[in-house]
Amino acid sequence: MRTPFFENHVKLGAKIVDFHGWDMPLQYSGILDEQKAVRSNAGLFDISHMGRFRITGETSEDCIQNLITNDISEITENQAIYSPMCNEEGRIIDDVIVSKIAQDEFLIVVNSSNIKKDFEWIQRHLDGNKLKDETQKVALLALQGPKAQAIIEKHTSEITKLKPFHFMKAKLHGQDCMISRTGYTGEDGFEIFFDSSNSILWEKLLSDGQIFGIKPAGLGARDILRLEAGMMLYGNDIDESVTPLDAPLKWAVKFEKNFIGKNALERNEPQKRLVGFEIVGSKRVARQNDQIIYEGKSVGRVTSGTFSPTLGKSIGFCYVPPYMQFGQDIQILIGGKNYDAKLRSTRFYKK
Amino acid sequence: MTEKRFTQDHEWVELSGDIATIGISNFAQDQLGDIVSIEFPTINSKFKQKDAMAIVDSVKASSDIYCPMDGTIIEVNENLEDHPELINKSPYDQGWILKLKVSDISQFENLMTQQQYEKFVGENKG
């Protein structure tokens, strides 16, 4: 599958890779160059491969409250909330962002790898409400970085008042958009929803951002940025073998309300926990499934690893036994050799 | 200019007497993407042709560097420890990786010439 911006990526000389069935840009100018642009100026990402579902109906809020572990009643119209969505065993089907468009209308953004699975799951729990897959109809770009606001401000000064996890309607270059102050990079920034027929906005935003040093940024930079910011990637760090309590997502599980998987999670004794690590004394990069070694034994595995240009260190996430604390010295087996590392919080980077 | 020869694993070799300077090809650095670290073998360690002797990590993958000719490591490009990006920026010059005292210079003749290598890479792209 291709997003409305595929031709733009090709024209910019992007390296295209298959990402869960989508032809997506891995990189344009270079992964590190793009990562730096997002941390210091701005980057524009095509994230139209992510799934967009609309749920409407009188009891749509109840339906969502049942589906997600976070508390939808905490937000009002024009706000969004992050949440895991669990099965009856409390294991993570997906992690999603729900935007409350109106009392009876919600937009859910899901991972591209889970579009089909999530659609079927939600459909089974609709309770008379309507579900529509708008992934093809709605385009989605992420404009991220310290200069993101200045780029949008040219079009609407209201943007300066928009709080994190809030969204607003605005016109960009005459096109109707929904702009939310959300992202997956640890920087200030926006996710911009609009009709897929307005694909001209990719070029327009890049040219708006030119004086601010904007760069188009691909999946490679996105992965480093989200890892530095301590954000989970479904399929790597979380999946249906773990619960939100194994991952550092307890903050998004609200036991004061009801949701699918609550009973299981209340009884759950986590067998492992996801933490961050940094490699000490080497810049070797740990990769997914490299073993965590403690006292000569394998006690866990790496779920994501990268080199962090911001820290100048090799970092990542791993699952370890729940008794292991931050600061614990461990080793990671990379390519047949043990490297010293230290456990730490997943929040490597705070802006 | 000294003649470069290439391996199927995308290393290049320049021979001066019995000293071989080794790096990775432009094609290899482009495939790897931004290189973030390199792990060298220790000086004086001995390798046979096709032994893994160094490792480069890029933002995308880890990759072994194979020894193109039998020999002993006599020097590594320590500049790369702080500036691994030189392999991307200047793969045939400032991005050289290590020097080897070779034990059998006739092995050089069995490596691919630039022309042969370019053909090899062209065929392996598709």
Describe the model.
The complex is a heterodimer of chains A (351) and B (126). Chain A is of the alpha+beta class and 351 residues long. Chain A has three domains: 6-50 and 136-228, Gyrase A, domain 2; 51-133, Aminomethyltransferase beta-barrel domains (Alpha-Beta Plaits, 2-Layer Sandwich); 271-344, Elongation Factor Tu (Ef-tu), domain 3. Chain A is built from eight helices and 19 strands. Chain A has helices at 6-11, 31-40, 60-67, 115-124, 148-153, 201-209, 219-228, 262-267; strands at 15-19, 22-27, 42-46, 51-56, 79-86, 92-102, 105-110, 130-133, 138-144, 167-172, 175-180, 189-195, 214-216, 273-279, 291-294, 297-308, 313-320, 329-334, 337-344. Chain A has a six-stranded mixed β-sheet with strand order 10-11-12-9-3-13, sandwiched between helices. A six-stranded antiparallel barrel of chain A has the order 14-17-16-15-18-19. In chain A, strands 5-6-7-4-8 form a five-stranded antiparallel β-sheet, covered by helices on one side. Chain A starts with 5 loop residues before the first helix and ends in a 7-residue tail after the last strand. The mean pLDDT of chain A is 97. Chain B has 126 residues and is of the alpha+beta class. In chain B, the strands form two sheets. A seven-stranded antiparallel β-sheet of chain B has the order 5-8-9-3-2-1-10. The longest helix of chain B has 12 residues, at 114-125. The A-B interface holds A 27, 30-33, 220, 224, 282-285, 287, 306-307, 309, 314, 334-335 and B 33-34, 36-37, 39, 55, 57, 59-62, 64, 84-85, 88.
Could you please say which CATH topology of chain B applies here? OB fold (Dihydrolipoamide Acetyltransferase, E2P)
Strand order of the largest sheet of chain A: 10-11-12-9-3-13
Task: Provide the CATH superfamily of chain B.
Answer: RNA polymerase II/Efflux pump adaptor protein, barrel-sandwich hybrid domain
The strand count of chain B comes to: 10
User: What does the main sheet of chain A amount to?
Assistant: 6 strands, mixed
Tally of structural domains of chain A: 3
From the N-terminal CA to the C-terminal CA of chain A, the straight-line distance is: 35 Å
In terms of quaternary structure, what is this?
heterodimer
User: What is the average of the pLDDT values of chain A?
Assistant: 97
Query: Which pair of chains forms the biggest interface, and how many residues does each contribute?
Result: A-B, 18 and 15 residues
CATH superfamily of the largest domain in chain A: Probable tRNA modification gtpase trme, domain 1
Given the C-alpha coordinates, what overall shape of chain A results? globular
Strand order of the largest sheet of chain B: 5-8-9-3-2-1-10
Tally of DSSP helical segments of chain B: 4
